[in-house]
Design goal:
This is DinB-like domain-containing protein. By secondary structure, this protein is mainly alpha-helical. It contains 6 helices and 2 strands. The protein has one domain: Four Helix Bundle (Hemerythrin (Met), subunit A) (Up-down Bundle). The chain has a two-stranded antiparallel sheet.
Length: 188
């Protein structure tokens, strides 16, 4: 895919995530946002905190990878590792994935700050994507969070983060609907 089109699509997806979060999740009460349908499920806040933990790692990694811009290819390429990583987090992939322990927010005490941090990360991600227009998206420059000896190409890593966010924002939307259905008195 053409690099400019690729980055524009990722930027549009992040803007949709911002809009969804602001329009559908932010207006809900803290009780709804903390609601869990069962012990194994995540609340809206837990879904967003999981994404915040990834953003705390990947956003600085992206910025570091782009410190020395050098555009090399007009097309975005994929490695075997990149293709596999994207398939795992793709929102349409119905398979549940087990998260690494330090990225699992289950049981955390969470508040509205989680939602605000998530929106701040989205703004920062948009800035990274804008800056990526001058970067080599095919350069293996971003260490994988849970096994840093492995590296993804910059383009693959950017797409990974956006798809991962889409997947968990959809999960957060489902959690919010379950909370509203199970406890209509919580809805404000």
């Amino acid at each position: 895919m053409n690099a400019n089109t690729f980055l524009q699509q990722l930027q549009a997806a992040v803007r949709r995530l911002q809009q969804t979060t602001e329009a559908e999740l932010a207006p809900l009460s803290s009780e709804v946002l903390n609601y869990k349908s069962n012990a194994q499920s995540w609340s809206v806040f837990e879904c967003l905190e999981h994404l915040n933990r990834y953003s705390r790692y990947y956003l600085p990694a992206f910025e570091k990878a782009m410190q020395h811009p050098q555009r090399s290819s007009a097309e975005v390429g994929y490695s075997w590792l990149g293709k596999k990583s994207l398939e795992v987090v793709r929102p349409g992939n119905g398979k549940a994935s087990k998260t690494v322990k330090h990225m699992n927010p289950a049981g955390s005490q969470l508040s509205r700050g989680v939602l605000e941090e998530f929106l701040q990360h989205q703004s920062r991600l948009l800035a990274v994507l804008a800056a990526a227009h001058t970067a080599d998206l095919n350069r293996k420059a971003v260490p994988v969070e849970f096994f840093r000896l492995l590296k993804l190409r910059l383009g693959e890593a950017l797409e990974f983060v956006v798809l991962h966010e889409e997947r968990h924002v959809q999960q957060a939307q489902r959690a919010a609907k379950q909370a509203q259905a199970a406890a209509p008195a919580l809805v404000v």
